[in-house]
């Protein structure tokens, strides 16, 4: 377990999803809109229809350069400041897939044009050139808690006085390889996800997503507190049956939030066992906190979900409205599940949590500075 109890300022945050930027995504979630739609799991090669949320006009199949690159450029245009990638302003690039779709296309076609984007180092180097960064760029990847680790590592550097500001950028864009892998596990199937709902069969959706956060030791409208990560090291995909990993990760955050009224932004992919464990841990750690999850609309943006959903949570704090759980329905796993939007007034902050294969967990407390 790693815990950083002290707070750090969040001076800027943004994201891109199939709905657009953070403001447009937040508005769509308030309306209860779903970006997920049935798409052949192997793209042009067909296969079963599964719920995917792709950027507008983007096909699932890989291109070179990637069709998602313009979206990353637009996201980069919204990052304030400059001199990123210098020693005083390091960059942490996080995600779980990077250019794996390029490797898949290279293997299928034999065309060397896909190689430049096909692995984390080469993909990050291409991004560094496209966004004009210097060489001080680190790669952080651990499945669906990747962006949590990026935030934590950036915070450690700032608190050690080794940087003035730090940028965390996370991205995950789908490909037939990624969709096919989850389909093989049968958690990506023909059904739409219904997070935190009790039903006979669980299902998830997958989505395109990218986000950034600028961290600073001082200055900024939000603060991150009690960043906590915990890894059960239990199984390749499963959590410990007693759910102890969820409790271990949320414990330090609950201590920091003691005496404060919070709402809980959960992972909420639509799987059943992990959903029940998360709800049990959240309701025990934060009694009375409404629980929401947005992957029933956006799909699971994988290693980038923590940062994408941080941007939406910050938008919720700024506007005073919190989108409810999209796709959730009765019977819910708990009375705490909020399926309708609600006011952020009266709350002191939000606990944002993400969970990953093998029992990796990440959480933090986000509030107004």
H/E element string? EEHEEHEHHEHEHEEEHEHEHHEEEE
Count of separate DSSP helical elements = 10
Radius of gyration (Å): 19 Å
Whole-Å distance between the termini? 26 Å
* Integer tally of domains: 1
The percentage of residues in β strands lies in 15-25%
CATH architecture label name: 3-Layer(aba) Sandwich
Classified in CATH, the superfamily is Thiolase/Chalcone synthase
**Shape type:** globular
CATH topology: Peroxisomal Thiolase, Chain A, domain 1
> The biggest beta sheet, please?
11 strands, mixed
The secondary-structure class comes to: alpha/beta
The proportion of residues forming helix, as a percent range, comes to 25-40%
Average residue-wise pLDDT: 95
- Counted beta strands: 16
CATH class: Alpha Beta
The residue ranges in which pLDDT falls below 50 over 5 or more consecutive positions are none
Could you explain how this protein is built, in words?
This protein is of the alpha/beta class and about 375 residues long. It has one domain: Peroxisomal Thiolase, Chain A, domain 1. Helices cover about 30% and strands about 25% of the residues. The chain is built from 10 helices and 16 strands. The strands form 3 sheets. Strands 1, 2, 5, 6, 7, 9, 10, 11, 12, 15 and 16 form an 11-stranded mixed sheet that branches. A hairpin with a 3-residue loop joins strand 15 (about 350-355) and strand 16 (about 360-369). Helix 1 (about 20-30) crosses helix 10 (about 305-320) and helix 7 (about 245-255) runs parallel beside helix 8. The longest helix is centred in the C-terminal third of the chain and has 15 residues, at about 305-320. The chain starts with a strand and ends with a strand. The mean pLDDT is about 95.
């Amino acid at each position: 377990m790693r815990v950083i109890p002290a707070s750090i300022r969040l001076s800027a945050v943004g994201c891109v999803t199939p709905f657009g930027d953070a403001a447009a995504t937040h508005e769509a979630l308030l309306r209860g809109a779903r970006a997920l739609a049935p798409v052949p799991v192997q793209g042009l090669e067909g296969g079963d229809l599964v719920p995917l949320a792709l950027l507008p006009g983007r096909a699932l199949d890989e291109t070179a350069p990637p069709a998602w690159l313009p979206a990353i450029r637009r996201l980069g245009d919204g990052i304030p400041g400059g001199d990123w990638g210098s020693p005083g302003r390091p960059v942490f690039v996080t995600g779980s897939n990077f250019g794996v779709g390029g490797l898949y296309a290279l293997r299928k076609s034999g065309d060397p044009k896909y190689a430049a984007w096909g692995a984390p180092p080469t993909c990050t180097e291409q991004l560094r050139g496209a966004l004009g960064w210097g060489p001080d760029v680190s790669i952080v990847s651990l499945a669906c808690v990747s962006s949590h680790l990026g935030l934590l590592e950036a915070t450690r550097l700032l608190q050690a006085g080794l940087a003035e500001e730090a940028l965390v950028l996370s991205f995950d864009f789908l490909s037939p390889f990624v969709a096919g892998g989850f389909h093989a596990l049968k958690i990506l199937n023909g059904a739409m996800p219904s997070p935190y709902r009790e039903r006979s069969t669980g299902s998830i959706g997958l989505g395109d997503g990218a986000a950034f956060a600028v961290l600073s030791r001082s200055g900024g409208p939000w603060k991150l507190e009690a960043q906590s990560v915990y890894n059960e090291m239990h199984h390749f995909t499963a959590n410990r049956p007693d759910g102890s990993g969820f409790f271990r990760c949320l414990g330090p955050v609950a201590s920091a939030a003691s005496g404060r009224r919070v709402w809980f932004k959960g992972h909420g992919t639509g799987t059943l066992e992990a959903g029940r464990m998360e709800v049990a841990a959240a309701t025990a750690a934060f009694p009375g906190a409404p629980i929401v999850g947005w992957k029933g609309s956006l799909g699971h943006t994988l290693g980038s979900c923590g940062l994408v959903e941080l941007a939406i949570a910050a938008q919720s704090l700024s506007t005073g409205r919190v989108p409810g759980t999209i796709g959730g329905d009765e019977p819910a796993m708990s009375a705490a599940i909020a399926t309708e939007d609600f006011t952020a007034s009266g709350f002191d902050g939000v606990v944002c949590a993400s969970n990953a294969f093998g029992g990796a967990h990440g959480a933090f407390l986000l509030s107004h500075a």
